[in-house]
Design a protein that fits this description.
Largest sheet of chain B: 8 strands, mixed
Mean pLDDT of chain B: 97
Oligomer: heterodimer
Strand content of chain B: 15-25%
Radius of gyration of chain A: 14 Å
Number of helices of chain A: 7
Number of strands of chain A: 0
Helix content of chain A: 55-70%
Structural class of chain A: mainly alpha
Largest sheet of chain A: none
Low-confidence stretches of chain B: none
Number of helices of chain B: 9
Shape of chain A: globular
Strand order of the largest sheet of chain B: 6-3-7-2-8-1-10-9
Shape of chain B: globular
Largest interface: A-B, 31 and 31 residues
Order of helices and strands of chain B: EHHEEEHEHEHEHEHHHEE
Radius of gyration of chain B: 17 Å
Distance between the termini of chain B: 11 Å
Low-confidence stretches of chain A: 88-96
Order of helices and strands of chain A: HHHHHHH
Chain lengths: 96, 278
């Protein structure tokens, strides 16, 4: 289920370099500007990919964790841990 | 009257720009060869303007206002906003073609399509990576068509086929003797920010290529409508190829190259369609 205000936070971070700076300096203060639910706030503070994933568009999620400085391999590993990699493992190729 | 002189499609992906200089040489060479061939064919058809069909990666639109299709009808558009794009494609302003953009919009409305419009779009990596790598003249006027390929619900494949036919009609009814080319960008399979991220679905990609080669619209519609729900989310960008395909008359598909590109997370596909006879 899409969480509008979480999505809005991620969208705004993509568009506003000053907001990124502010967020890195004080995540909680920036969250106050959005109607972030308490459980979502906890997930943000914990960098909880699995909890945030169902709430936002996947492209916004990827961008957000780039802003957070999470290496791509770690981000992908956390996503993969949520589910079997995909329904046809034989067809899978490596990823960079 | 205007003429449709070339129809092309090419993958994109931010890593192509972000890691171009550090990518393994042999992989970069493969991407270079494919994009170069797109560029060579595009230049050979001497277009006066290029219609680029591309997704919007949360640059122009958000979920508070998300059109299925937006046509850029301005004299100018803004270049890519992503910092990694500015380094490789430092064009702050790109030329539009307001007259054809308005004609396309009016043709759509007259035929019971309801696109939204923009007098100034920002063209992100989805549009600009193929332009950059194919060496498209940055002075070539563009008419962008942005398609919602990212957030469900998205336009149906059937509707994208209809959009391609409409685009062809708009080109061929434009009164000025312009040479117009079409470039669809995105795809083939990839998976971004979801539990299968990194998966390149080669089975889907080869079947998709076969469906374009066969050309038949109902089969393509049935295949994609079913399979897009079963593969990675990035494959939804194939809608931009579908629009190009139908603009070409759903015939004359030629694969330039396909290879899984794990370094850039995409099933890299490059194609052209035979332009209609004069």
């Amino acid at each position: 289920m899409t969480d509008y205000w979480l999505s809005k936070l991620f969208f705004d971070l993509q568009h506003d370099a000053q907001l990124v700076t502010d967020y890195r300096a004080d995540m909680a203060a920036v969250m106050e500007r959005y109607r972030i639910k308490p459980e979502v706030r906890r997930a943000l503070m914990d960098d909880d990919v699995a909890a945030l994933s169902p709430l936002v568009n996947a492209y916004l999620l990827r961008f957000y964790f780039q802003v957070r400085g999470m290496p791509q391999d770690e981000f992908m590993a956390r996503l993969h841990a949520m589910n079997p990699p995909h329904p046809a493992p034989a067809a899978k190729v490596g990823h960079g | 009257m205007a003429k449709l002189v070339g129809i092309f499609a090419a993958s994109h992906g931010p890593i192509i720009a972000r890691e171009w200089e550090t990518m393994a040489r042999d992989h970069r060479d493969k991407l270079t060869a494919a994009f170069d061939e797109i560029g060579r064919r595009l230049r050979a058809c001497r277009p006066d303007l290029l219609v680029v069909v591309s997704p919007d990666h949360w640059v122009n639109f958000f979920i508070n206002n998300l059109p299925a299709i937006c046509i850029g009808i301005g004299d100018e558009h803004d270049g890519p906003p992503e910092p990694f794009m500015k380094k490789v494609y430092p064009h702050q302003v790109l030329k539009g073609h307001a007259a054809f953009g308005r004609h396309l919009l009016q043709t759509a409305l007259d035929n019971d399509f309801d696109p939204t419009l923009s007098h100034r779009l920002t063209l992100d990596h989805g549009t600009c990576i193929p332009l950059w790598r194919a060496g498209v003249d940055p002075e070539l006027p563009l008419v962008p068509i942005l398609v919602n390929d990212l957030e469900a619900p998205m336009p149906s494949i059937r509707r994208c086929l209809a959009w391609g036919r409409l685009l062809r009609r708009a080109i061929e009814s434009y009164p000025e003797p312009l040479r117009i080319a079409v470039l669809g960008t995105g795809g083939l399979s990839h998976s971004i920010g979801e539990t299968t991220m990194g998966w390149i679905d080669e089975t889907f990609d080869h079947a998709c290529i076969d469906a374009f080669a066969r050309g038949e619209e109902r089969q393509l519609d049935a295949f994609l409508t079913e399979q897009l729900e079963r593969t990675g989310n990035g494959a939804h960008e194939i809608r931009d190829w579908v629009i190009a395909h139908a603009a070409a008359g759903s015939t004359g598909f030629e694969l330039i190259d396909y290879f899984p590109s794990p370094a850039t997370l995409v099933g890299a596909g490059f194609a052209s369609w035979k332009a209609p006879a004069a």
